[in-house]
Design a protein that fits this description.
Low-confidence stretches: none
CATH architecture of the largest domain: 3-Layer(aba) Sandwich
Helix content: 25-40%
Number of strands: 14
Distance between the termini: 34 Å
CATH superfamily of the largest domain: Gcn5-related N-acetyltransferase (GNAT)
Mean pLDDT: 90
Shape: globular
Radius of gyration: 20 Å
Number of helices: 11
Strand content: 25-35%
């Protein structure tokens, strides 16, 4: 249902500033692949380039239909003035993006792509080249390094910073706070495209049923919110017990949802003036300790841009280690 909404212009506010065309590859009447060609006007306005995108790529292990899919998407983008084809982005950098190129032996996590190893060969055989790598980090236990935990306490006291969980009774107002912070916290990142108010509302509505309030925290100073972090239970742990996706498998999913021990930190950001001040460690510490009390003993953080050295170093110091690599590819048109 979520994917249908994602793909439907009338339901997904992304299409208020973007267009997409979907293609299927068929051989002897059998569907063997798919791709979306995407023109994102918000990206064009933000970066002033002529980059078009492709996403939702799936294909059998055969370069012939893969080439046909890439060629067709490229033709559609070229006709609309694009000079580079970038992806996979499904449909944008604010959604699932990147091709898994390392970490195939690990299970997929919530809201992150996962693909077979041969997809790398299909891309590179077509002539795609690396544009940027995205790193995902894992923490296999619920123990934050003691020195970091102590430092977090000192930072909170010295800077008069307080943390609080998401208030579900004021969910709409909490979303308004996120709107005020999100685009400021992530501006200037490579490939960044601001989310519109409608897109944030849409995302919040989708995530609300699975939110654990204690895994969402706001950092405040002198009554003003200066940062926020969002972690979600990794519902893939439950969903994999209903591989058919049929409605009759829902009771089994709900049963296993009670036993989820994994979570993913998908957002963590502060206002520019508080970056590298220790507020990120404070929020990590909150999620770490609150998560442990709710039975979450494994966490994923990311993704983080490979050349975002301060964030990468901070993740390592906090006890995380890189365990997956996703690649964004470019190809001149």
């Amino acid at each position: 249902m979520d994917v249908r909404t994602l793909l439907t212009p009338g339901k997904n506010p992304f299409f208020q500033h973007a267009q997409a065309q979907y293609f299927l590859a068929r051989v002897n009447g059998r569907t063997v692949g798919r791709i979306a060609a995407i023109k994102n006007d918000a990206h064009t306005r933000e970066h002033g380039d002529r980059v078009g995108f492709y996403g939702f790529f799936e294909c059998i292990d055969d370069p012939t239909p893969a080439r046909a899919l890439f060629d067709t998407a490229a033709t559609w983008l070229r006709a609309r003035g694009m000079r580079v084809m970038r992806g996979p982005m499904s449909p944008s950098i604010n959604d699932e993006c990147g091709l898994l190129v390392a970490g195939f032996d690990t299970p997929p996590t919530l809201m992150m792509p996962h693909n077979p190893p041969y997809y790398v060969g299909l891309h590179e055989g077509y002539g795609f080249a690396k544009a940027k790598d995205l790193l995902a980090f894992e923490s296999p236990n619920a123990q934050m390094p003691e020195r970091i935990a102590r430092a977090a306490t000192v930072i909170a006291e010295r800077k008069s910073i307080t943390l609080r969980p998401l208030n579900m009774k004021r969910f709409k107002q909490e979303v308004e706070l996120v709107k005020a912070l999100y685009n400021q916290a992530w501006e200037k990142n490579w490939g960044f495209v601001p989310l519109t108010d409608a897109e944030i509302d849409h995302l919040a509505k989708q995530l609300k049923p699975i939110v654990e309030p204690d895994l969402v925290c706001f950092a405040e100073r002198q009554g003003a919110v200066i940062g926020f972090a969002v972690a979600l239970p990794d519902f893939n742990v439950a969903l994999k017990h209903n591989p058919s996706g049929r409605l009759y498998g829902l009771p089994k999913v709900l049963w296993h949802a009670r036993k989820i021990h994994r979570c993913r930190i998908l957002l963590l950001g502060t206002l520019k003036e508080y970056r590298m001040s220790g507020v990120d460690a404070l929020m990590y510490h909150w999620i770490w300790t609150k998560g442990a009390t709710h039975g979450y003993h494994w966490g994923e953080g990311g993704w983080i841009l490979e050349d975002n050295v301060p964030m990468v170093n901070a993740a390592v110091q906090l006890g995380f280690r890189p365990y997956k690599t996703y690649r964004i590819y470019d190809k001149p048109l």
